[in-house]
Amino acid sequence: MQRSCMLLMILIAGFVGGCDGTPAKIERAVAAALAPETSPDVWTPVLKNPSSKRADMLKGMGSHNFTSFFLAITDELDRLAKGYSWEFDPRTSPALFAQYLIDHSTLVAAKDVRDLQWAKQPNGTFSGSFSVDTSYGLKAKMLFAASEKDGSIAVTKLVVAKKQSTDLADGFTIFEKQ
After folding, report:
1. Whole-angstrom Cα distance, residue 69 to residue 76?
2. Which pLDDT tens digit goes with each residue over 75-110?
3. How deeply is 149 buried, as exposed, middle or buried, from its count of CB atoms within 10 A (0-12, 13-18, 19+)?
4. Which of 65, 29, 24 is CA-nearest to residue 154?
5. Can you tell me the distance from the alpha carbon of 26 to that of 152, in angstroms, rounded to the nearest whole number?
6. Burial of 84 (C-beta count, 10 Å sphere; 0-12/13-18/19+)
7. Which of 152, 146, 143 lies closest to 172, judged by CA?
8. Fewer Cβ in 10 A, N or C end of the chain?
9. How far apart are CA 110 and CA 95, in angstroms?
10. What is the pTM of this model?
C-alpha cells in the first residue's frame, strides 16, 4: 500500500511538473505573440469609440503582437493574400472581427491555433509553426522563432508563411524583436 501511494505521488508530481514544461511555455509564448501587449482596459475604449484615432489604439496595444499587425495591415493586404498562406480580407467584415476582438481581447484566441509544432535548435533557440482558423474567417499559417530567458519562452519573430515554404526568412514579417 505504501509503495502504491509513493508511485501515485511520483506520477502526480510528474504530471503537475510536466504542465509547466517546454510545450506549455511554447503555447503561452505563442498566445502572448498573438494578443495585445497591454490589458484591454488600455485599448478597448478607443476601439469602442469610432471618433478615436486608430493610431492611439495601435499604440495602446503594443507593436510586437499579431493583433496590432492585423489592425494596421491595410496597405499590404493584396501582397499578403497573393504570395503568402493567408486567407482573409479585413475590409470585408470589420464589424465581425472587431466584435471578436472585444469578446476575446485578441484577434486569434488560443482555441484558434491549430497544429502547433516546434523544435529546439542547436543554439538553444526554438522555431516552429502553427495554423490559425478563426470563427470570423481568418485562415493563415504562421512561422515563429523564440528564445528562452530566465525560465520563460518568448516569441522573437513571427511571420505569415510564404506559400510553399517553411523558411522563416521567406515569411511576411508580423514582428521581430531585437
Report:
1. 11
2. 777 788 888 999 988 778 788 878 888 899 899 999
3. exposed
4. 29
5. 9
6. buried
7. 143
8. C
9. 21
10. 0.81
